[in-house]
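Obj: model holo form, ligand = cobalt (II) ion.
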Amino acid sequence: MTKTVKITDTILRDAHQSQIATRMTIEQMIPVLETLDHAGFESLEVWGGATFDACIRFLNEDPWERLRTIRKHVKNTKLQMLLRGQNLLGYKHYADDVVDAFIQKSIENGIDIIRVFDALNDTRNLKTSVASINKYGGHAQVAICYTISEVHTDDYYVELVKEMEAMGAHSICIKDMAGILTPYRAETLVKRIKAVTKLPLQVHTHATSGIAEMTYLKAVEAGADIIDTANSSFAGGTSQPATESMVIALRELGYHIDVNLEDCQKVAEHFKAVKETFIESGVFNPKVLEADPNTLIYQVPGGMISNLLSQLKEAKQLDKFEQVLAEVPKVRADLGYPPLVTPLSQMVGTQAVMNVLSGERYKLVPNEIKDYIKGYYGKSPAPISPELIETIVGKNAEIITVRPADLIEPEMANVTAELGDIADSVEDVLSYALFPQIALPYLKKKHDPFYDVPEQNVTIIM
Ligand code: CO
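Output (holo structure tokens):
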């Protein structure tokens, strides 16, 4: 029997998030949305991750409107988004009622599949999201954040998968945001997971280190059902392997794949022209395309690399890039091996930048790292040394061990009241609940076209 491999194309989300810091606009997408719909993908990843933030912060776009527009043009293919569990699309934990409302509105506005993860793989932080996705009839794809450390063994991941299935997952994803999943480890991990669950298994990796195609091949051979690839126009490097090339290679090996390559080619032609404009404006940094084996050593995801580059560029310290990269795994080990995924990737990245630029480790510590040490993000995968805890938060700081969101009071009523008639919809309230500082001037302007938006000092955190 011919085995079928399904494909999720990431061109509208992860591909441009990883290569051009999520700067693609809806106008640049519209001309090929129907072609993408026709191309036969299992799903299109179109929303979530950094798109929501980038839309408001940099593109003057209503992220909800973007989603509705995509849905209007993509009538048949399932739309997929990436959600950071209790962090939603932001960088902190939100109250359960915000999580519930956000998921309800995401599904109402057109999302079919929600890939949900927690940066620490702390399943307590996934509980509310998974319950709400089920409640509103969405597909809950629960992701394990793949990382490498002494505690992240195949046994560890298998136990996680069992917990996720029991929570109500409809499918499982191995989310390798850093592109550090090697072909052999993909094979063993996929086999182990397939042995304990009948749920579909999707694999997500990045081509950063140059091994992603091999990883996908071994994963597919071992029984993975779906892989994430990107249209060739924004593929490779910090993005996913090219859709067209993977399809051709896998078909030759006898796999059945429902993807129309002519449609892919039309999409590629369109986005190659779009990419030219980003090359001309300097947004596209050719560094993101280099095969970088350092990724396997430093375990730094693609989005984080382009982010560190722009942080250092702004600080005019681009020459410290290698030093910062070397500092990242040290900070990560100090902090109990958190997987490098948003928001932990930004936090670890910022701490590494501070450690290098200030010339003294942990002399400057952002509040987010202090909160992490105190347990407000969840449980660290490995324990943190008491000495470091004392250095960062002092001897008598209170460390919490409950689910962080248990300590957060319901927020929807308050934010709704705060916004008053500036909000035209629950979606507006949610934009404000997630990103109060940037959403407020944006919503004021949307509500009243004569409102003068003040100049903002914008820190790029992607
Ligand atoms: Co990714």
